[in-house]
Design a protein that fits this description.
rod-shaped
């Protein structure tokens, strides 16, 4: 006993199977392309991660160099007993090493440090001016104290020997 529309049911069943098969192929294709794209993105992210890690390490090294240079700059003209010429030589060497390191880096990676390294000479000149001014002030104080003492002696001599 066959249904009157068995041919139509068979056609629709075959059409359903074809549509289901196409849907499955489309889903598998989408998933496959997603997996391929995600793998490419993962490779790209890993590459960028290595670049960023390298840049981060360079930034840390630069920060350490700048901190060391700054600490040595703060030692200039301090009250501590330090050989100023040796310290200035060390600062100059550190500055040149910093500039050499900065020249090896890409332009935008260390722009702030490049601008700071350009100002080190200005800082050294200012520190030297401060040192010279301090020594002049000390010398002037000593002269003033001698003048005051000489004035007191002269005043005593005037009052004691009329």
């Amino acid at each position: 006993m066959k249904a009157k529309n068995s041919k139509h049911v068979t056609q629709n069943y075959a059409l359903f199977v074809i549509a289901l098969f196409c849907s499955i192929l489309t889903a598998v294709g989408c998933i496959w392309s997603f997996i391929i794209a995600s793998n490419k993105e993962i490779v790209s992210i890993e590459k960028r991660s290595v670049e960023y890690d390298t840049a981060f390490e360079q930034q840390i090294l630069l920060t350490e160099k700048v901190d060391s240079l700054y600490n040595n700059l703060t030692l200039l003209n301090s009250d501590r007993r330090i050989n100023e010429l040796v310290l200035q030589n060390r600062i100059s060497t550190q500055k040149m090493n910093l500039i050499g390191t900065l020249d090896k880096l890409p332009g935008g990676d260390a722009l702030l440090y490049k601008k700071m390294s350009e100002k080190v000479n200005d800082i050294l000149e200012i520190k030297d001016s401060i040192r010279i001014t301090r020594s002049e002030v000390e010398e002037t104080k000593k002269k003033l104290q001698r003048c005051i003492e000489d004035n007191r002696k002269a005043a005593r001599n005037v009052f004691t020997n009329p």
